[in-house]
């Protein structure tokens, strides 16, 4: 009897230890321990305005700013993609030169911010950079190029942006361009143009991630067919939950998963949830849109005035924003359709991203809290917050190295 009792005693102690080791993490602990990446923000739009200080804390209620270093710290965000965004204009040699120079100036502004606050932030171009910077207690700044317009018709510009630190290019924006059709414009190339096809191949070769957010469905399928590397949708949602052409339908989600890619959930309210009818707001917005020629080709002064009048509408006819819970409905759906390995977060802060209970980067832990509430595990949340995206980054890099190796052998 006694001999039997000893093993039982040991087993009891061992299992007690195991229970003790399986620590229950709070949402805040999970959030703090995760390596977190936001794959899309338009914050550099503010860098090019002279009075914006990235190291100062801003009040979103006052100046609508969503991202700065102090609030990144509060929100536990480790890595952020800053978009060098250009809006679509004419497709002439002259316009291409102008937009290339403008995109170049945005990159200058990002680099000068990195230099100015080098004790708090650093430029990141790979997952290893993010890991290194996190250990140094610094925020990692990645660069993306939103809209392939500044490439003009010159493939070597892909390498130019890559060498300046950019790691993805969103092929187009809200209008068609020389590369492909947009999801919010008419059919022109019926997908990728011939030049667009060479852009995809060149991006694979260079190790530049292909961002399929904003592009039309046929452009998306053309990219999936052509790309040898996984692609990203840097800021998009699920069309089955919110029917908007900017979002991906289930068939596209499956194709994306098969490609090994990742969709990064956007928190722009009208992509998350169909806005309730608000005719007064609609008509006021239309008036401002007409007055400023659809915001196309405006000079700085006109843009400033347009922005002021557009934002003033919020106090006359406020809109009801979607919530974090509405946004997580998209994650639930995407996970149900393609599993946990192909989803991440790309807020679109400073480009329209905002939810009722996630106004700025300091509110990001609310997303983790909701995920925990819905039963997502620490491991799953780590994947959503960065591991999935880092896997794609590494695979894109590996494909580029493979192609370089093959071409050097020939
Ligand atoms: Zn966008």
Descriptive tags:
410 residues; alpha/beta; TIM Barrel; six-stranded parallel β-sheet
Describe this structure in words.
- The protein has 410 residues and is α/β, with parallel strands linked by helices.
- Helices cover 50% and strands 10% of the residues.
- The chain has 17 helices and nine strands.
- Strands 1, 2, 3, 4, 5 and 6 form a six-stranded parallel sheet that branches.
- Helix 11 links the parallel strand 7 (232-236) and strand 8 (262-265).
- The radius of gyration is 23 Å and the shape is globular.
- The structure holds zinc ion (ZN).
- Residues 146, 214, 235, 348, 351 line the site of zinc ion.
Task: Record the SSE blueprint.
Blueprint: H1 2-21, H2 27-33, E1 37-41, H3 44-47, H4 60-63, H5 69-74, E2 79-85, H6 93-116, E3 121-123, H7 127-135, E4 139-146, H8 156-163, E5 166-170, H9 194-206, E6 209-211, H10 217-226, E7 232-236, H11 250-258, E8 262-265, H12 269-272, H13 279-291, H14 300-316, H15 324-338, E9 343-345, H16 365-373, H17 378-409
Parallel strand pairs: 1-2, 2-4, 3-4, 4-5, 5-6, 7-8, 8-9
Bound molecules: zinc ion.
